[in-house]
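[job 0417] fold request received: Ankyrin repeat-containing domain protein
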Amino acid sequence: SADKDGRMPLSYALSNGHGKIAELLINKGAPLDSPDKYGWTPLIYACRQGHRGVAELLIDKGVALGSTDKVGWTPLTYASAAGHLDVVKLLIDRGGRAILESTHQAGFTPLMAALNRGHLAIAKLLIEKGGESD
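[job 0417] inference complete; emitting structure tokens
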């Protein structure tokens, strides 16, 4: 069950770097799209922390790639900002152009997130795949 912030055990496992526990919870039927009070879903936690294998498992189970948190950040935005190139590649491969065009409420894009944090390899990939800069 969720804590006072709406965070489920799966999100705790992911936010604390326990990918194997997260996989176990997923395979045992843990809720996959349950957002916490910030709108962060298990996929967002996996992408923020660089858990590529768990992100792939969640995607295989059908979670929404384009979901947003309360400020409009997507899993791709978080992975781009955190510098997780392998997760960014996974999201682009599985989500296509639609997730590249996602923008934050104030117009902040995954490309801007990568550039803002100095993740040039991710920025290059996003540009090559057609990510928006404005």
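[job 0417] notes: Residues 85-95 form the longest helix (11 residues). The two ends are 40 Å apart (CA to CA).
[job 0417] exit 0
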